[in-house]
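job 3f2a | input accepted
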Amino acid sequence: MNVIKTELEGVVIIEPRIFEDARGYFFESFSERMFQEQVSKTEFVQDNESKSSYGVLRGLHYQLGEYAQAKLVRVVKGSVLDVAVDMRKSSPTFGKYVAVELSEKNKRQFFIPRGFAHGFLVLSPEAIFQYKCDNYYAPGNEGSVAYNDPTIDIDWQIDPKHFLLSEKDAKAPFLKDAVLFE
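job 3f2a | predicted structure (182 res):
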């Protein structure tokens, strides 16, 4: 596996070695040993999956306090633009983001450590998105920041008129009003 560091400390892109032939392909989608040695000492406790259609924007979400979560995400069908935003107010990259396209074709994975907001936008007609979490979801400890915050200024790559948002995501606060990590 190839681990690609990003400009945000701890946020990495993982490219697997893919073995293809006339029968199809094979790749190792997760190795705890490799992950612990090359990415993070994170131990995952839960796997999740979502299915969404073109224009669905999920995020930007995070969990606070003792319920903070690190995530390892990937797409098994379709493609998404996946985004991590630094929510650590003492960080030199606070409010900055990294975006990467994840797809069934490139089979990339994206690791988002604790202290970051996470979201994705579906670029294909349909996408199946999988992610591992290192902590269980706690509804009373969730935070969010607006996908269209002008200080973050995310380039989502498609016209916002195509976005499909949950009511909660449509009402998320801007960064200046969001609950932050220390």
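job 3f2a | The mean pLDDT is 96.
job 3f2a | closed
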